[in-house]
Amino acid sequence: MHKKSNFTVLPYGAIFFDMELKDKVVVITGASKGLGRELAQTFTKEGAKVVISARSEKELQEVAEELGALAIAADVTKENDVESLARDVVREYGRIDIWINNAGAWIPHGPIEELDMKRVHDMMEVNLFGTMYGSRVALIQMRKQNGGMIINILSTSALEGRSGSSGYCASKYAAVGFTKSLRKETKDSGITVISIYPGGMQTNLFDEEKPEDIDKYMQPSFVVERIVQNLQQREPKEELIIRRPSK
Ligand SMILES: NC(=O)c1ccc[n+]([C@@H]2O[C@H](COP(=O)([O-])OP(=O)(O)OC[C@H]3O[C@@H](n4cnc5c(N)ncnc54)[C@H](OP(=O)(O)O)[C@@H]3O)[C@@H](O)[C@H]2O)c1
User: Fold this and answer.
1) Protein residue with least CA distance to atom 23, ligand 1
2) How many CB atoms lie within 10 A of CB 221?
3) pTM exceeds cut of 0.85
4) Is residue 15 within 8 Å of residue 192, measured between CB atoms?
5) Is the CB of 131 under 6 A from ligand 1?
6) Which residues are known to be catalytic?
């Protein structure tokens, strides 16, 4: 086994991420709040060079200052924004080790025939196209580096259909199809693609309409712990489902 830049090259060609997060360049979209913010906090504590992104510049800047991260605003539904985010990161740090497509949107539950399709389209733009744009720019850079890791935040809603949540489920199922294909296209390239399927978390995602049992949902810090534990395995699971522990 020999070392190739920051990644460990195993004899049979698969390359897995070193458990050492220190000095890794990590980009996290949707990191001004919720799961993304919690991921940013943990990665900065581990000594990674963390770039956080979201649309709201002021909020992002405040979080960046608090965590010691770099803030670069971008709307993931705008391909130009995402391309310039990647360019700025490479200009600043010279590489991208981990790119986390975390930015996400949700709409309140409702029967299919009553869904506001404009809102479904907008959600699809974030949950599917945002993930595709982010993965593409990360991949282009990681191919040049011969290594890296793309982590896509999906949902347990992408494992089973849910009554009242057809639009959100569809957007996440679509992102699953994309992510599985991305993994196949990057096989043996040194680029690892990880899918994370969290269950319900207590975040701002539900600001518009809180689920009745939200107090039973997981804290994002619990989910981040599981994500980081997985990364620290010698062979991280490429598909990680994180549900609330049963009592
Ligand atoms: N909460 C849950 O129960 C749950 C369960 C499973 C999966 N997830 C997934 O986990 C991820 C994180 O969600 P969360 O619960 O942490 O949500 P959250 O608290 O609402 O945070 C969402 C983040 O995404 C950013 N964002 C939204 N639209 C964006 C856009 N177009 N471009 C760039 N950034 C955008 C927001 O900042 P700005 O508004 O400033 O852009 C914010 O930083 C999402 O992919 C979500 O689908 C959540």
Assistant:
1) 30
2) 13
3) yes
4) yes
5) no
6) 168
